[in-house]
Write a structure and sequence with these properties.
The chain is an alpha+beta fold and about 400 residues long. It has a single domain, classed as Cytochrome p450. About 50% of the residues lie in helices and about 15% in strands. The protein is built from 16 helices and 13 strands. The strands form four sheets. The protein has a six-stranded mixed beta sheet, with helices on one face. Strands 5-13-10 form a three-stranded antiparallel beta sheet. The structure holds protoporphyrin IX containing FE. InterPro entries: Cyt_P450, Cyt_P450_B, Cyt_P450_CS, Cyt_P450_sf. It comes from Novosphingobium resinovorum. GO terms for molecular function: heme binding; iron ion binding; monooxygenase activity; oxidoreductase activity, acting on paired donors, with incorporation or reduction of molecular oxygen.
């Protein structure tokens, strides 16, 4: 067994988060496992090892937090997610309840509303011709359709974005990136606590269905509001980033956009290719419960391990020309939505949002052109843009 490459670089630094891919190449070259001295955490970079870790919850536990902090040590900057940060058996019961609320049948019922909203949005974008694809499209759409589906009031919904940004930043250290987002996101907590009370959620919405499960005794009442907040966090900036990355991809790879226009049946796999290429959650952590062999290394028990999802999704041993977008490539096995018992429960909603928007674009947009430099929004766990100026040409 080899010793780890002791990496001096900081996987939560602005330099890394602005441009992670060159650093991934260095990590891959150094071996299967790295140790980051600044935080005394380990990192797994290769696709096969990341996928194996995601699939092995007994060894790679989520219960002590999927960020740097350990819930067992108290003093947390955020509330533990009852779903994401639980191991079986606690996780199993909760996942069954939320899985029913987000079931394929329920999501199918949302389709016509989502399609209608996508049509109206693309009408507006075609009128504008030039716009910011983050603010005017990628943020606008999920902030409209997902809280609608949850049954949230209209007032103040835009606050969900800075809240989600803060929560995902809290997966990393208390660095400047976290501090900046905390200032904007923290005041939202009180508003959100109020919004997720049963009486403030519209009857028939997904939020009320979670409360109904609590009233039936399937989950504790105090858990209902907490899980609803988790969904409103997990389902916002992630989807925003996925949609913005799609426009960046279509503008940067016009031939791939044309391939999608020529083959609309590729809509679904094309979203997989987008999130493989730029993974909205770039990394997530686990805690080892026992010593474990990864590649040519042994990771000790009871340590935090960063799973670099974004790097695994660009592993050259898994995909040819991984840094390029190729609509129609086989993306099976990508880990942008995780895999195993914690695999994304909201992916049908995210996929539906992408699908209805792409369908409108395919019918009505000939091309996307960048009119300025894309600006990245740095986040300790998320990869996303804060601005993407574009022009669209109609058909
Ligand atoms: C879990 C990514 C959209 C709800 C996850 C995980 C990833 C992920 C990587 C696994 C985390 C882990 O293993 O620790 C994404 C991406 C999205 C997206 C890339 C959009 C493109 C959504 C939406 C919702 C949602 C829209 C809510 C409706 C959840 C929940 C879990 C989860 C509840 C935890 C599942 C569990 O622990 O059993 N997501 N997600 N996600 N996601 Fe998503």
């Amino acid at each position: 067994m080899r010793s780890y490459s002791a990496s001096e670089f900081d996987p939560f630094s602005e330099a890394y988060l602005s441009s992670p891919y060159p650093f991934h190449e260095q990590l891959r070259a150094a071996g299967s496992v790295s140790h980051f001295a600044a935080y005394d955490v380990y990192g797994i970079i290769r696709h096969k090892d990341v996928a194996a870790a995601l699939g092995d919850w007994k060894t790679f536990s989520s219960a002590d937090g999927v960020g740097l902090e350990r819930f067992s040590e108290g003093t947390m900057r955020r509330t533990q997610s009852l779903l994401l940060e639980a191991d079986p058996p606690n996780h199993t019961a909760m996942r069954a309840v939320i899985g029913r609320v987000l079931s394929p049948l329920v999501i199918r019922q949302l389709r016509s509303r989502f399609e209608e909203e996508a049509g109206q949005l693309v009408d507006r974008l075609l009128d504008l011709r030039e716009f910011d694809a983050v603010k005017d499209m990628a943020e606008f759409f999920p902030v409209k359709v997902f809280p609608d589906a949850m049954g949230l009031g209209l007032e103040g919904r835009e606050k969900l974005l800075p809240f989600s940004d803060m929560v995902f930043n809290a997966f990393g250290p208390e660095n400047d990136i976290y501090e900046r987002s905390d200032k904007i996101g923290r005041p939202v907590v009180e508003w959100l606590l109020d919004q997720t009370k049963m009486e403030n959620l519209a009857p028939g919405g997904l939020g009320r269905q979670i409360w109904d499960a609590a009233l039936r005794g399937e989950i504790a009442e105090r858990e209902a509001a907490s899980v609803i907040r988790s969904l409103l966090t997990a389902g916002m900036d992630t989807t925003v980033n996925g949609l913005a990355h799609a426009v960046l991809a279509f503008a940067s790879y016009p031939a791939e956009w044309q391939r999608l226009v020529d083959n609309p049946s590729l809509i679904r796999p094309s979203f997989d290719e987008i999130v493989r290429w730029e993974s909205p959650i770039h990394s997530i952590l686990r805690t080892t419960t026992s010593e474990v062999v990864v590649g040519e290394h042994v990771i000790p028990a009871k340590v935090k391990v960063i799973l670099f999802l974004g790097a695994a999704n660009r592993d050259p041993d898994r995909w040819e020309d991984p840094n390029d977008v190729r609509i129609g490539r086989d993306t099976q096995g990508h880990v942008a939505f995780g895999t195993g018992i914690h695999g994304c429960l909201g992916q049908l909603i995210a996929r539906l949002e992408a699908e209805v928007i792409f369908a409108q674009f395919i019918r009505r947009v000939r091309s996307f052109e960048l009119t300025g430099e894309p600006v990245w929004r740095l986040n300790n766990a998320l990869r996303g843009l804060s601005s993407l100026p574009v022009r669209i040409l109609p058909n």
